[in-house]
UniProtKB/TrEMBL annotation, chains A, B:
<dbReference type="Pfam" id="PF00440">
    <property type="entry name" value="TetR_N"/>
</dbReference>
<dbReference type="InterPro" id="IPR054156">
    <property type="entry name" value="YxaF_TetR_C"/>
</dbReference>
<dbReference type="InterPro" id="IPR009057">
    <property type="entry name" value="Homeodomain-like_sf"/>
</dbReference>
<keyword id="KW-0805">Transcription regulation</keyword>
<keyword id="KW-0238">DNA-binding</keyword>
<dbReference type="GO" id="GO:0003677">
    <property type="term" value="F:DNA binding"/>
</dbReference>
<dbReference type="InterPro" id="IPR001647">
    <property type="entry name" value="HTH_TetR"/>
</dbReference>
<dbReference type="InterPro" id="IPR036271">
    <property type="entry name" value="Tet_transcr_reg_TetR-rel_C_sf"/>
</dbReference>
<dbReference type="Pfam" id="PF21993">
    <property type="entry name" value="TetR_C_13_2"/>
</dbReference>
<protein>
    <submittedName>
        <fullName>AcrR family transcriptional regulator</fullName>
    </submittedName>
</protein>
<keyword id="KW-0804">Transcription</keyword>
<feature type="domain" description="HTH tetR-type">
    <location>
        <begin position="1"/>
        <end position="61"/>
    </location>
</feature>
<feature type="DNA-binding region" description="H-T-H motif">
    <location>
        <begin position="24"/>
        <end position="43"/>
    </location>
</feature>
DNA sequence: TGATTTTTGTACCGATCGGTACAAAGTTGT
DNA sequence: ACAACTTTGTACCGATCGGTACAAAAATCA
């Protein structure tokens, strides 16, 4: 009696490491310790349902730990600062890849287009909201929010490509201080 | 008698669209119009050699159109400006994905680790060189160069995820003006 | 033209793919 | 203990994977 939520982390890691196409049931079975029988019992929809479930959980995590604080935390600078803490820990200081980003670049984007779009749209919207609340005008807030989210995604790519996780940490620090001056 | 160079563009497009794992020989055969016989005649090493060849060509293109101008163009501001033009056209104003970025995020990074690392390392180094020549101190040049390359990669991800190619164009414009003030 | 070599299409290989069937094993309620 | 139900492992399915063998077909050279 294994619950879906118990194996979602392992499942997410497989998709992150191998992408949607590369995450074979054999790999998934090995990573979760569950046979095909159990997997298809938990996820009758197969791989697609597994990935959808993982995305749902990721979205929920970001909603709780990023989006909501960004929208509601007072002063808004606190929400922004917390965002950087959460991002740093979630992406393991640059050693962990963003599954949603991976899916966005691949063909599987078509399968999960809505989830992928929503993830980034909500992130940008929440961050822009915090910026607006801190005094920026609406247009500048959205532009800066897009820039910051893109910078985070790009830093993941670059840190991974150069095998320099520290680059990711540095990028976060730079963004943090830039936003402190922008928002303060 | 089809030459390797003739089919490399189609080949690159398949890898870009489907990733390394997702680019099956059936897809490759269809995209290039060549049967397996011809493919394995041109690339005895199979998929791995095809991808390596594509990466080599990409690297050569960037060397000619980006890295060298960045290092040698005078004044350096010209090289930087040309870089943005080249980047905009190469990535089809945000509608085309960066294959090297895709590989960097996937497992296939291990297979092409050196090529992936070299691509980004040379880009950052060339851009940092141009910045240094334009008067920035060495440390700031490298930091800014990493930031810019990351921003470009992130903008690709974000533009694709949100299905808003214009976001990529806007990001380039922002970077361009920021660097004009930094380098000028 | 005929001999030689390069290029191509097709049939095939074992392995693995995602997914299904189903019975054994485990759990639960009584 | 027994029946009802849930969870799991294993065998198997057709399809497709990357790759090989090889002969027909082109092209080249004499």
């Amino acid at each position: 009696m294994t619950a879906r939520s118990e194996i979602l982390p392992a499942l997410a890691e497989v998709f992150r490491e191998h992408g949607y196409a590369g995450a074979s049931l054999a790999l998934i079975s090995q990573a979760t310790g569950l046979g095909k029988g159990s997997l298809y019992h938990l996820f009758p929809g197969g791989k697609a349902e597994m990935a959808a479930c993982v995305l749902e959980e990721i979205d929920a995590w970001f909603e709780t730990n990023l989006y909501r604080p960004l929208r509601e935390r007072d002063p808004p600078e606190r929400g922004i600062s917390d965002m950087f803490d959460s991002v740093a820990s979630y992406f393991r200081s640059g050693q962990r890849v963003c599954l949603v980003g991976v899916l966005a670049l691949g063909t599987s984007r078509d399968l999960f287009a809505e989830a992928v779009r929503g993830y980034f749209a909500r992130w940008v919207a929440a961050l822009a909201d915090a910026l607006r609340r801190s005094g920026q005008d609406a247009a500048a807030s959205t532009a800066l929010a897009e820039e910051v989210v893109a910078q985070i995604q790009g830093a993941i790519v670059l840190a991974r490509a150069l095998d320099q996780p520290a680059l990711f940490t540095r990028a976060l620090a730079t963004l943090r201080s830039r936003m402190a001056t922008a928002a303060g």
